[in-house]
Every structure is written in C-alpha cells, then in structure tokens.
Amino acid sequence: MASCPTTDHGGRTVRGQVRDQDGGSTAYLAAVTIVNRPPQMQAPGNQTGVEGVSRTFGLGGFNDVAGDGPFTVGINWGDGSSSTFSVPAPGPLSAPHVYADNGTDTVVVSVTDKDGASGTASFVATVNNVAPTVNAGADATIDEGGTFASGDSFMDPGADTWTASVNYGDGSGDQPLALSGKAFTLNHVSADNGTYTVTVKVNDGPATSAGAAVVTVANVAPSVTASVSPAAIVESGATTVSGGFTDPGTIDSHTVVINWGDGTSSAAPVAAGAAKTFSATHQYPDDSPSGTAAGVYPITITVMDKDGASGGVVGTVNDSC
Fold first, then answer.
1. d(CA 261, CA 315)
2. 10: phi > 0 → left, psi -120 to 50 → alpha, else beta; which?
3. d(C-alpha 211, C-alpha 199), whole Å
4. Which candidate among 35, 86, 193, 280 keeps its CA 20 to 30 Å from the CA of 321?
5. 44 or 22, which is more confident
6. CB 200 within 8 A of CB 134
7. Which residues are CB-contacts of 176 (< 8 A; sequence separation ≥ 6)?
C-alpha cells in the first residue's frame, strides 16, 4: 500500500506500475477525487460583557489545511448586528464588539475556506446592565417663596428607556420628571424656609440610581402696611389701626402686636383666609404718655412670622385736648 499527502481538494491522476517477481510490469493510470474538508471549529466558552462598553470576545479557533486559506470569519452577534474579517491561516480567533443594551445573546461564529466549505460554533454572551449615574445639579440658596430652578443630566452607556422622578424634600412627595434625552429641568416654589434635599431618581429598567442637591431656603420677614383712623382724637378718645401684610412664606403663621404708645400693647387678630389683614381699636387714657410730646401717641405695629422674623410700621395719634 502506498500513500501520498495532498494540500488541497480536487481531481488527481495517479500513475502506478505493477511488477511481478519475474520482473514483468504493467503501468496504469487512476483518477482520484480529493474531497474538500470544511474547517474544524473549536467552540469558545460562554462570556460576559457590559452594555455600551467595547469588549474583545474570544471566538474559539479552527483547524484546516493551510492551503484552504484565506479564510472568511463571519460573526452573528445575536443583537441584530454582524461582522466579517479574513484570516490567512487556521488558529485562535477574537473580535471586539459593543453591545448597546443588556441581555443574553447567542453568538454564532462561522469560518469559510476559499472553496466555500464552512464550519460553525456558538457561545452565549451575557451583557450586564450599567446603572445610570445621576447629577442633580449644584446646591442652591434661595428665599422662601422663591423658585428653585436648576437642570442637569445623567449618564448611561446603555440604549435604555428611562423614567425619572424628583422629590424636592419638602413633603410634596415624588413627582414625575420629564426627560429630554438624558437631560432634565427642575423647577419648584419653596413655600417655607428650611434646608431641603432635592433627590432625582432615574430608572433604566433593571436599575434605579439617584442624585441629590441641597437647597437652603432663607426666611423672609413680613412686609407691613397700616393706617390709623382717626389720627386725631379728643381726650379719652379711641382710634383704630387697620392694615395688612405680605409674606412669601405661604405656610407661615403670624402674630400682630400693636404698641399704642401709652404704655400698653395688644395683639390684633389676623383675618381668616389669604388676605392677611388685621384691625384693632384702642381707648386712650386722659393723660399724655410720659416721655412724649403732650397729646402725641406713637403707635408701632409689628408682625412676626413663626420663625421670629418681623416687619413693622409706625404711626401716631394726636390727642386734641
């Protein structure tokens, strides 16, 4: 028996000769067809990656006769994308790929020799999610009744669908937050003074992340207007102080104290509702106050909010006796 190696498929003519023991011989020709053998794949193991991040995946390798090259490597990444490249000879294979989103994808690798024969292998790529990174913006200081206006964004390498919410830290609870791409705008009226943590949460499906900013809201004193009527009284007469005030702290409570200028003072009730008005009447004594010009009573109206800030105005009433 005789053998002869070959490096490629195709038809061959084999020439031979048969000799007997007496020295006689006969020559012959034989046609031999060599069948192409497809590349022999070596399957890679399952692998992991991270969404939005390029990773070089091992694709296993293959064996074949060197003469069958160059070889075309085709990869179906399992996410709707594919890639091809050429290698000159058998051996290990690898290729980079970016998975846009988390999930589990079956990757199919094929190697085709120059004669069209192919071998395939597959593995599973598990792509892990990356949670968003949220920036809620810079800390801020505003007055009560003012508007906290800010805006920022978040980062996420995945091709995700996001939802967001904001909690302004003042008891108003979580509120839906509109997104423009990966950006958002914050806008909120601060009803009362205090220090509040504004928390923005972004969810990408598998994960929720949060970012925070601190808003310091300063108290604002009430602004008071008032009038005295009548401004001129007879001895032992009475006068009425009427007025109102404004305060941007919409949940403040207030007390109104009137010093009548005769050594007495009294609280004036604040009218119910949003008007923030008050009124009080006082009966003056027979004698002028000590330390003031005869017949002149200086009146001081002070409005104080729950946080101790006060505003006031001064008026006078003249005793005509």
1. 10
2. left
3. 6
4. 280
5. 44
6. yes
7. 163, 164, 165
Nearest to 72 by CA among 85, 56, 90: 85
Which amino acid belongs to residue 83? Answer: S
Contacts of 274 (CB under 8 A, 6+ apart): none
Q: What is the largest CA-CA distance in the chain?
A: 171
Query: Other C-beta atoms within 10 Å of 77: how many?
Result: 19
Is this model's pTM higher than 0.90 or not?
no
Nearest in space to 218 (alpha carbons), one of 198, 192, 196? 192
What are the beta bridge partners of residue 75?
A: 83, 109
Give the whole-angstrom CA distance, residue 77 versus residue 119: 17
Give 213-247 pLDDT, tens digit per residue. 999 999 999 999 999 999 988 877 899 999 999 99
Report the SS3 class of residue 67.
Answer: helix
| Both tokens assigned to 283 | 């009966």
Mapped onto helix, strand or coil, the DSSP state of residue 68 is helix
Nearest to 268 by CA among 238, 296, 244, 297: 244
Helix ranges (H only) for 161-281 are none
Distance, CA of 314 to CA of 226 (rounded, Å): 8
Backbone angles phi, psi at 233, to 5 degrees: -130, 160
